[in-house]
Amino acid sequence: MQDPGRTITLNGFEIHRGRLDPAGQARLAEEIAAVAAAAPPFAPLTPWGKPMSVRMTSAGKYGWFTDAKGYRYVDRHPSGTPWPPIPATALDLWRALASADRMPDCCLVNFYGATARMGMHRDADEADFTWPVLSISLGDPGLFRIGGTARADLTSSILLESGDVVVMGGPARLAYHGIDRIRFGASKLLPDGGRINLTLRVVD
Ligand code: MD6
Ligand code: FE
């Protein structure tokens, strides 16, 4: 763990190092296993018809989805069942770091295998950008790239490790970011290795 308990601000992204201790990480990993059992992860198709390298599922009122019709929030898993509830451990972090008054509508769960990555993007499918996005990392470290609000802005990179929590709010809410690669096998938290990232969002 790098600098547990320290908060770093990079391009307006607030990075809380080691915010979840190992017991909290293990508890959240179990809660996510229950989400994945109820709503099995899938590789969504980008609007360009290519499957994403990251597998995804969601919890909460809405799940994030993409296919030929584009990026959007949907109220059902592709199987037709409603999304399971957002894990309590994730809601506790939202209450502490984002808002105690308004709970998130969506918890997007991203599963990264050895070669998965996430291209530079902005989270802009929500209705109200005054609410932050909160992200929680579990398992193998991932190299997180942060830019500015224009695609051409300079970028910096930081390794997100298991237990790190990132708050993307204020002027950084619409900044570009992505995951270049993960360090597969570096963490023993998840039985099959890999990285899990949760992002909590207010959608409506
Ligand atoms: C990831 N995260 O860490 C991808 N989005 O795997 C995101 O795309 C993200 O970490 C919004 C805010 C924080 C994030
Ligand atoms: Fe994002």
Structural features, described:
With 204 residues, this protein is mainly beta. 13% of the residues lie in helices and 34% in strands. The chain has two helices and 13 strands. A seven-stranded antiparallel β-sheet has the order 1-2-11-8-13-6-3, covered by helices on one side. Strand 1 (7-10) and strand 2 (13-16) form a beta hairpin. The radius of gyration is 16 Å and the shape is globular. 38% of the residues are buried. The mean pLDDT is 96. The structure holds N-[(3-hydroxypyridin-2-yl)carbonyl]glycine and fe (iii) ion. Fe (iii) ion binds at residues 121, 123, 177.
What is the approximate shape? globular
Number of strands: 13
The hetero compounds bound to this protein are: N-[(3-hydroxypyridin-2-yl)carbonyl]glycine, fe (iii) ion
Low-confidence stretches: none
Biggest beta-sheet profile: 7 strands, antiparallel
Major sheet: arrangement of strands? 1-2-11-8-13-6-3
Strand proportion, as a percent range, falls in: 25-35%
Terminal CA distance reads: 35 Å
Secondary-structure-derived class: mainly beta
> What's the average pLDDT?
96
Rg from alpha-carbon coordinates: 16 Å
